[in-house]
Amino acid sequence: MQNSAEQIRSLVFDALRAALDRPVEFSDDTNITEGLGLDSVAVMDFVMEIEDALDISIPLDRIAEVKTVGDLVAAAQDLKGGR
Amino acid sequence: MALFDKYAPLMGQFESLESTGYNPFNVSFDRVLSPTEGVIAGRRILLLGTNNYLGLTYDPDVIDAAVAATRSLGAGTTGSRVANGSYGGHRQLERHLADFYGRQHCMVFSTGYQANLGILSALAGKDDHLILDADSHASIYDGSRLGHAQVTRFRHNDPDDLDNRLRRLADTPGDKVIVVEGIYSMLGDTAPLREFVEVKRKWGAYLVVDEAHSLGVLGRTGRGLAEAAGVEDEVDFVVGTFSKSLGGIGGFCVSDMDGFDILRVASRPYMFTASLPPAVVAAVTEALNQLRHRPALRQQLMDNARRFHAGLGDLGFHVGPEASPVVSAIMPDPKTAFAFWTRLLEAGLYTNVSLPPATPKGLALLRSSVSAAHSRSQIDHALSLFADTGRELGLIPAEPAIPTWVKHPTATLAGAEPQDALAIGFRSQLLARLAAPSKAMAKYYSAFRRQSPGRARIVGDK
Ligand SMILES: Cc1ncc(COP(=O)(O)O)c(C=O)c1O
């Protein structure tokens, strides 16, 4: 099933919101580790949720390149081919 | 200073630990007296955080072998096996390990960490795929990064998730290599290896099992989880370390795969580092001999493990899902873990603190490892110190009582949010003591997972 770029974006935002243990405001520009206080393992764990929702695999080197929420959205869109 | 600016947050944490007087990551032993006792800051301490599972570090035959090897062959090899030559002892140790595992090939590395680096980076090439259990040891992650393969992870101990990820890769070219551990070093749980083997077969993947914490611990002859699960034929590569049950240092990989020896000139962590010194090789060879011929050690170890694991559980601590030599008490947060650790040390007991991201699910752990060398009274003494400290810190009930929600599982949890992951995990764990262990584990982890994909919420953690 093809997901639109916007669907993928809102899916990433939802997954991130669920991964945080308190409500935090964030945008495409927010740095995931520094801005949201997630450590490397927590990031990899919540990426799994995105992988499952989109039925894709995001290799660890791609995750390592991700700095901001927007980077992650872009990586997911790229791998899903939904651009 | 600018170079280290990036470590400012870490430095802050470290300094605040130092200021409390003790820092669990900076302990120094004045002396070590035996596998179970040492001296810290002039005080005699009971050791419960050493990974010295069989207590072989002071075995007289092991020590004699090391001394004799040093006298006849010198203190070090001063070079790599590839560039500067192997000694007879390296080859002999490889033959003994291959024989012990009933496999054709064995390579010995200078540490267990390097064994993972050397094997994983060399097995999977640029177009291949490494699929790691999410809770893998740092050496497995680092070994994956050292090579050029694509790396993905699957949910800890979850064969369905592994299956799902292999399915996604099915149309992608390249070999698929699955990596799991025998006993996991943080919570002491074991991999559901039979189920993993089924998934591996279904997709034609290869399987690597790191038996670092299960060598000499599990299996009829001590070969580890693959032996205990009866699936050794389906495990393509066993990796292990000499630094735990064998009481030395070094690592190895055994396999029956044709052409295995090419890794000796392809694996950089094997080629570009000095080989193990004669003393270590001789000591490990003798320790392996002891492991093979003294099954009573394994029995003693598991008796101690069960006693300690059950003891902590009965006191009301949240412990890992199954009894193994690694026994971790789950702490509400890192600060409590430090406080607990410090009080135990002041009372004469040495344990370990493990923190995220080295731990699964963001857990703060007070980790213990038991040894065959511990006497029953040492285990009981450790339990009584845990009981005192747990009560002082308000982590466990004043009296060892069975809470009502255990007896009546449908009752609401007193004093804890009903949706609290740990409470649910703990309850299912207790209830599941009556059921199969693998079921208990699945429940335990799915309770965490349901709660929050990123981070388990912990009692008292708001
Ligand atoms: C699962 C696992 N693999 C590998 C290692 C590395 O072994 P070593 O410390 O002997 O280098 C360890 C322990 O440190 C471990 O727990």
UniProtKB/TrEMBL annotation, chain A:
Q: Source taxonomy lineage? A: Bacteria, Pseudomonadati, Pseudomonadota, Alphaproteobacteria, Rhodospirillales
The record's Pfam families line, in alphabetical order, gives:
PP-binding
Domain of life (superkingdom): Bacteria
Q: Which residues form the Carrier domain?
A: 2-80
> Under which name does UniProt file this protein?
Acyl carrier protein
UniProtKB/TrEMBL annotation, chain B:
Q: Is the Transferase keyword given for this protein?
A: yes
**Which terms in the Gene Ontology molecular function aspect does this entry carry?**
pyridoxal phosphate binding; transferase activity
The lineage's top-level taxon is Bacteria
Keyword list, A-Z: Pyridoxal phosphate, Transferase
Matching entries from Pfam families are given as: Aminotran_1_2 (PF00155)
Question: What region holds the Aminotransferase class I/classII large domain?
Answer: 45-384
The record's similarity note reads: Belongs to the class-II pyridoxal-phosphate-dependent aminotransferase family.
Name of this protein: 8-amino-7-oxononanoate synthase
Q: Which organism's genome codes for this protein?
A: Nitrospirillum viridazoti CBAmc
Organism classification, top ranks?
Bacteria, Pseudomonadati, Pseudomonadota, Alphaproteobacteria, Rhodospirillales
